[in-house]
Amino acid sequence: MTTNPVPRILNTLRSEQATSPALVWYGPDSERVELSGRVLDNWAAKTSNYLAEELDAEPGSTVELDLPAHWKTLVWALGAWQAGCQLALSADSGAPVRATADHPEPRSSGEIVAAVALPALAMSWPGALPAGTSDYAAEVRSFADTWAGPEYGDEPGAALAGGPGAEATPFTSLPGLEDREAAGAVTLLAPAEAGLARILGTALAVWSAGGTLVLTGAGVEATERMLAAEKVTARLGA
């Protein structure tokens, strides 16, 4: 995956996996969210359009994910990659755009911040936001269900931005499943403890193979009942 695989993956999700589960999330307080391929693609498209139209993100821009391992974080990753952006998983990159679940105050005068309320049913950020900070939950639903921009899948691009003194990470070097071709159409369990970078790479591998990713939040136990109910066939070690 030297070039950006996300446009091809999203096309597969909305066509071949439209009604079957692509992403299942288990969060705290017994929260379970299931997204079919079509729904996941719609969320990604809305987020891509939101990034481009509301946050002024451009191809090649870096978007920092100041977010935990969560289904909305994967939506943000797909949306940013579809829009031709690269991701940063720490503040070291100095990204001009940041999505955050905890720190909505801009860290510099030029930083563009999107506050992301994580509960599935949240329609807005719970409380007041600093001037200039965008409320993702309140605004993203108004954007189109299809990506309005060009496709960036044929161009070499970085998946993750490099920090100070470090090179960017291409899609082919994302950590995750060691043998992506052998992943098969699995239902794979990914615990938050595996780390966001590994989860991102593994998610792309699983979706490329037509599989389902079951993501559990930090501290959420994968019970035998859960594994059986989701028909989990593989697990990503923490």
UniProtKB/TrEMBL annotation:
InterPro entries: ANL_N_sf, Rv3268. This is TIGR03089 family protein. It comes from Arthrobacter koreensis.
